[in-house]
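Notes, Module 5: Reading structure tokens.

Key idea: the token line is not a picture. It is a compressed description, and you learn to read it the same way you learned to read a sequence, by spotting repeated patterns. We will look at two proteins. The first is printed below with its tokens.
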Amino acid sequence: MLAWLGLLTIVALLVLIMSKKMTAVAALIIVPLITALIAGFTNEIALFVTDGLKSIAPTGVMFIFAILFFGILTDAGTFKPLIKKLLQFAGNDPAKVAIATALLAMAVHLDGSGAVTFLVTIPALLPLYDTLKMRRTTLATITALAAGTMNILPWGGPTIRAASALEVEVTALFNPILFPVLGGLTTVLVVSYILGKRERKHLSDIKVEPTLPKSETHDTPSALERPKLFYLNIFMILLTVTALISGFAPPHIIFMVAFSIALIINYPAPKDQGERINAHAKAALLMASILFAAGCFTGILKGSGMIEAMAQGAVAYIPESLGNHLAVITGIAAMPASLLFDPDSFYFGILPLLSTTASHFNVESIEIGRAAIMGQMTTGFPVSPLTGSTYLLVGLTGVELGEHQKRTIPLAFLVTLVILILSLLIGAISW
């Protein structure tokens, strides 16, 4: 009975979220509560929920302060000089323009927001693409590939969701695939260069010096920007990322300290500090509420035994020869799964079942998580019809969604496969 109730819980979650009948936050809380009551649990439910919240609390805190940290540095204009330098580097060479596009999208996506990445990258480069007669589809594809691959970072939404669902440290999930992810980013740069070389055909008979839009050269800083603190802010970013990857301290503590220092240095006045926090509070609260609601969901499913019951049922139908390779199968299916599942339903509904099932075949559950973040709403999010930022990307570039998907999906899948193969080679995922 528990197995069927667990399946009902996951299906109901998927239907309610994907049909937009209920918000993810509400569905993650209400659906498991109802099925737990049907299963006969009463007072135990409070314990299940509390245990789930305890397991997810550090990740939720980390994400809140990561958003605030990168938000503060963005307000301070930390990334604007980088944009200007990249535009100067690009000049009128399509290959350089393509590489600059990828580098800019990667830099801006440090804050983990696809919308911000597209809002900064596309307007900055679109006039240059149009002046050089470069195809806008190329701009959309390169930006999508760069942002998608960067979304695997420890503070990216999919990675945080995966760590929360599996109740593991973000660093334990991400660090073993650091070099494969770097390989994926390198692949994005290589692909960008190749796409840029193809664009040279459009310039064979055109010799026009690009005119960069003055609004994007950022010569006049706004009142919020701190150009004199540029190098210090860059140093703080590098130090924070290094501390995070090295495991020097828990990620939530690192970002709490980093945010506090960045806020005090860039905005010493308490009034300014309050305004900056308020400016980014909405984004931080939105994701935090989903994470804590997910703690309720996973806490009930695991505490009640539904996940385990479903896994045992699945084991009976999965051949051992197939079950032993669930991590690889997950990695291959992860990117296409972005077209079918939104991140909340996949990571909080599907991933726990996959990981628990894999454990019955002596496959570490954390490997399933690593395989999942190689494509599901990482390389796959900028082409998924289930994410609003995809429509923002195609809207800003003026490209049809179908055309964007046709050009980008094969390349996004290629990047996922590169990361997966490198992970297999270094043993981060077992074959």
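Here is the second protein, with the sequence above and the tokens below, as before.
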Amino acid sequence: MISMMSRVVPAIVLTSGLPKMQDRGAFMSINSSLQQIAGGVAAIVGGLIVVQKNKYSPLEHYNILGILISLLSTLSILLVYLVSKMVKQRKAIGL
């Protein structure tokens, strides 16, 4: 729980710097809704990838899910870097 929240708080601070001040509440509301939807979709996709033939057999395709998560995490790191650059540029020009 602690490690998860230590990643979430900086991400929220970073994304809250994107919209203009008067649009921040609506942006954060939509952002929260999209996060909840993405969590549900991720659970469904993960459940479709990892299967168990019967209740006595081991889980299968767990390695594929791990590779997919690694690729998506790398993509997320790149996107956070790009958002960080955008926020810094907006602050530099005074928006």
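Summary for the second protein:
- The chain has one domain: 2-93.
- The chain has three helices and no strands.
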